[in-house]
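chain below, 550 aa
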Amino acid sequence: MKCSICGKPLEKTNGDCTKCGPKQVEDSQNDEHVTKPMFIQGVLSLDGADQIAACNRVIDSNNDSEEPEILKMVAMAMFSMGKALSGAKQIAAYDRLIDRFTNSEDSKNLEYVAAAMFNTGGALSGADQIAAYDRLIDRFNNSEEVEILKIVAMAMFSKGNAMSGPKQIAAYDRLIERFNDSKKPEILEQVALAMFNKGGVRSGIGKITAYDCLIDRFIDSEEAEILKIVAIAMYNKGNALSGAKQIAAYDRLIDRFNDSEEPKIIEYVAKAMFSKGASLSVAKQIAAYNRLIDRFDDSEEIEILVLVASAMYHKVASLSGVKQIAVYNRLIDRFNNSEEPKILVSVAKAMFSKGMALSGVKQITAYDRLIDRFNDSKETTVLELVAIAMLDKGNALSGPKKIAAYDRLIERFNDSKKPKILRLVAMAMLDKGNALSGPKQIAAYDRLIDRFNDSEDLGTLEYVAKAMFNKGCSLPGAKAIAVYGRLIDKFEDSEETAILVPVASSMYNMGASLPEAEQIATYNRLIARFEDSEDPDILEWVAKAKNQLQ
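prediction:
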């Protein structure tokens, strides 16, 4: 005996199939009796090739039946087989179902046809996708079956998503006009989504109008999924406005949904509170940020806590002195043990800004706390703050401690791939050189020049130019001239003012060290190159050169 589902031999002991369930025996004398168990106990529990084979057996054995219940199982088998396949075979399976049952009078069979048409559209692209959705819409737009109309609404929405420009708007409008008066939540959700997307693709007053249509239509809905869309539309509307109208839009969202228990809706309440604070004048920001902090400080939702931490940080902009430090401390104490990268960015910013607001030993302590906490971070923004803290710490210290601070920065980040961090490394190398003297100073400048001479970052090359100039100033006679010449050859054609200042000053210093004839030629070169400059520092060197020629 063989299993009626998978076709494999049954167990001799009890006649069961280990895959498909008990006593699935082939029996051509009673099709309906066989077919129902085939799905209830077997086909839907299979997967892959076994499921496809089982579906084929059901279809081949019963496709010509005239029994309505059996034909429902055939339609289900065809649909299940389409879902189990992919590519061209999937399309072929759905087409077989559509061709077989598109004229059926049974609502369940027609539901499978509609679903197959919809899935066909999802598997296609471009014009073929649009055609598939149109076929479904044209066939079933006038249906009275709710389950089928749900699929029609989904097809209209998906068609709009697959289009652009005026055609996209027209597709959404067709959906809205067709189903705006529906009483079914699943269908109304598609209407709300169409209104929302319509607002997303429009601009200016058209965007605001689209969002207002959605908000006015569904603000009193009791369906959570629809209210989520309303909340997002309110937030996006606020973002599209400015001034008093923007604040009013955020306030309407906050007042409407502040007591919601839906996490996604509450997230947009928090976003509205934060954005409102960011849109207000400094004097009014504190109250807005405090409302957000007081409302959501105990939240367990990560995205909301990100906003709370950010609100604490931005709240400081309107504070100073002891109050400023107190807010930084509150943020640090509240979130220092968080594992969320976005929150830790705010913690790192608070630690850094606290250090900036302090001085002396307290400043160094604050920077050290930041460095020790985040030295191993993987977040670029955080590592930039660590590097700046190391640099500022070096600037605040003196003697060997200054050099040690710069060295720590250089050793930690010298192999970084991030341009902003490498710029800080170059700054540390330059500042280290400036803090030294004699051969150690020259060695520090040389390390900077060798490390970054081929950099493509203009900010970093500025420090290369400055290191070359400072090195030239530290050397005597011919050695200085050689360094100035190298600097001029490398950077004379630059368009960056910060780089050209060392070029101009090198030309002047080089001229001062040369014999009279070469000196005159060098001063004239400086004047010719920079006489039309608009930078005061460069023009100062031009004036000095002219004075030397008088």
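Residues 58 and 74 are 6 Å apart (CA to CA). Confidence is low (pLDDT under 50) at residues 22-34.
thats it, cya
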